[in-house]
Amino acid sequence: MTSVKSQDLEDFELLDHVGHLLRRAQQIAVAAYSQEVGRDLRPRQFSLLLAIYQQPGLHQVELTELIGMDRSTISEISERLEKRGLLERRPDEADERASKLYITSQGSAAVEAALPGILGVHQNLLARLPTHLHVPFIAALKTLAATED
Asked: By CB count within 10 A, which of 24, 63, 90, 141 is most buried?
């Protein structure tokens, strides 16, 4: 780690700092999500349910790569969703130690109900940018999200 001089601090522009801007953008996105979708189905819960909706019978470890969450977070969210009746675990016939995740009809209804609001949030957030920046912006976010050190 390099040392910081007081002049560096005086010249530091927080509004030019990637981490700060990403955090602010995340706050705006989450607030918009809460307003459009509500608080019953959080963004990470939606991501997990959508993945299982689209690919029933996934193992938790498969979800880590698919939605970019660690195993303990997926386990915690899965337990909450299971208690709410939105998903269920079934034994994996090929591996008795493992279980597969399936969305319930109640979970499917929750995902289907949330989707219009999520699409609205997506459009509203992109509307803050000039149209010609939409594609490169999404591409840049995908690059950042895929990068792991």
From this structure: 63
Distance CA 114, CA 81 (A): 15
Distances (CA, A) of 67 to 3, 112, 128: 37, 18, 26
Cβ-contact 105, 84 below 8 angstroms = no
Q: How far apart are CA 58 and CA 56, in angstroms?
A: 6
Distance between alpha carbon 88 and the CA centroid of its chain, in Å? 20
Q: Please report, for the chain, the start and end positions of each structural domain, with discontinuous segments joined by +.
A: 40-124
Q: Is 99 left (phi over 0), alpha (psi -120 to 50) or beta?
A: beta
DSSP alpha helix (H) spans, the chain: 6-11, 18-37, 43-54, 60-67, 71-83, 105-126, 134-146
User: Could you say which architecture CATH assigns to the domain 40-124?
Assistant: Orthogonal Bundle (1.10)
Q: What is the pLDDT along the chain (149 residues), one digit of tens a residue?
A: 566 666 677 888 888 889 999 999 999 999 999 999 998 999 999 999 999 999 999 998 889 888 989 989 999 999 999 999 999 999 888 887 888 999 999 999 999 999 999 999 999 999 999 999 999 999 999 998 886 54
Which residue, 54, 56, 104, is CA-closest to 84? 104
